[in-house]
Amino acid sequence: MAENNQRAGNPAQWSSRFAFIMAAVGSAVGLGNIWKFPYITGENGGGAFVLVYLACIAVIGLPIMVAEVMLGRRGGKSPIGTMAMVAGNEGRSRGWAGVGIMATLTAFIILSFYSVIAGWTMPYILAAVGGDFSNIAAEESGALFGGLLASPGQLLLWHTVFMGLTVLVSAGGVRHGLERAVTKLMPALFVLLLILVGYAMTTGYFGEAIGFLFRPDFSALTAEAVLVALGHAFFTLSLASGAMMAYGAYLQKDVSIARTSVVVAIMDTGVALLAGLAIFPIVFAHGLEPGEGPGLIFVTLPVAFGQMPGGSFFATLFFVLLLFAAWTSSISMLESLVSYLNEKGVSRVKAAVGGGLVAWLVGITTVLSLNDWSGFTPLAMFERFEGKTLFDLYDFLTANIMMPLGALMTALFVGWKMKPANSAVELGRWHGLWFPVVRYLSPIAVLIVFYFNLK
Ligand code: PHE
Ligand code: NA
User: Fold this and answer.
1) What ipTM was reported for this prediction?
2) Which residues, judged by CB distance below 6 Å to any ligand atom, belong to the binding site of ligand 1?
3) Atom 6, ligand 1: residue with shortest CA distance
4) CB 426: neighbour CB atoms within 10 A?
5) Which among 15, 33, 35, 31 is positioned nearest to 23, based on CA atoms?
6) Share of the chain above pLDDT 70, in %
7) Candidates 29, 62, 235, 402: which one to mutate for ligand 1, based on the most atoms within 8 Å of Cβ?
8) Could you tell me the distance, in angstroms and rounded to a whole number, from the CA of residue 94 to the centre of ligand 2?
9) Measured in whole angstroms, how far is the alpha carbon of residue 449 from the centre of its chain?
10) Which single residue of 35, 42, 129, 261 has CA 20 to 30 Å from 148?
11) What is the pLDDT of residue 178?
12) Structure pTM?
């Protein structure tokens, strides 16, 4: 039984390159693309932010993804175990395991609040099924969302359900079922986004949205916006969190890591851009505020669904797919910790339940940040953190500090501490292109962004 669980939840290898791509895309595509990307783009003024984000994906995110998958495959262990082992084999200090420890912690903090946000999809599924969105006005939609946030009980309930779902898959054998589900659900999500973009074109504000997303106004770009774009490149690709390293450990030797990573990055970026193209026309058509924050899609999309033919059906489908996308991401967040504890002799079931329980407890502070504790801004004495609730701080700390730091350390390790001959074995003919980028370009870019934010 225990052995079965082990094999089912922790496959020694993916069954194919396709299975790895699906798992990696499942991890990457999530709330980051559909919920976070549009709202931070709205908050940071559009075009210039989007361009910086795309540059960060190409120049920093993608090379780091290649590095993480490569390290994962070489180590073949949990992110913590992999870093210790690869560093040891390279004749370096096993203290590099610290990179794995920080990644595991990062994923864990993210999971705590990600579960709360993912929970929002469930009352939205119920509302969609009940036809609550039909002909809803923007104001009503805002009130509906406000009502959800104002109710700690509701938020806690859905947070609990979502964390339960995550633990369930992480603990046991459903992984393969889920992998199969991902292969159907991800394309469905893609198609549904296309339908939404099609609808958005009929609003008469599509051109305005294109301008907002793709016409850069660099005069409005702040150092913090660049940091947010950089952080989001890591967040959206599931980097510096152990997720890709853990999944890389299950990758066969004959798969091209570089080509596979490019596919994952393109799919992830495609979904984010489609989400933006679907949402901003609606925002402008209804006079909504692009910088309205984390509620952006939950306020705008119901208005669109409420007006389109078959809207209740599409709305239900959309929020179900969003829930699945978030689910396949949250499972990968728990994987760093579970695989580590598993290595230390703790069963996957115990590790997943224990980890999920603690993340759930921490998540309660995010639930309360949205209502009863919304005035609790513990770092308000620093100008930068003024008005930031605990939830805001978890988000900032992970995406904008821990992830860039972790990625920087990873780049320094593969670029300066690992023998190039060894990474070349893993990367083949792509090595010549990749190596100078992770050795110089990626770390220097991260350092520059940090520098301008500390000044
Ligand atoms: N990439 C996921 C998303 O965009 C979030 C994530 C972060 C998943 C870190 C795993 C690890 O939603
Ligand atoms: Na993503």
Assistant:
1) 0.99
2) 27-28, 30-33, 107, 110, 235-236, 238, 241, 243, 329, 332-333
3) 238
4) 21
5) 15
6) 96
7) 235
8) 31
9) 21
10) 42
11) 64
12) 0.95
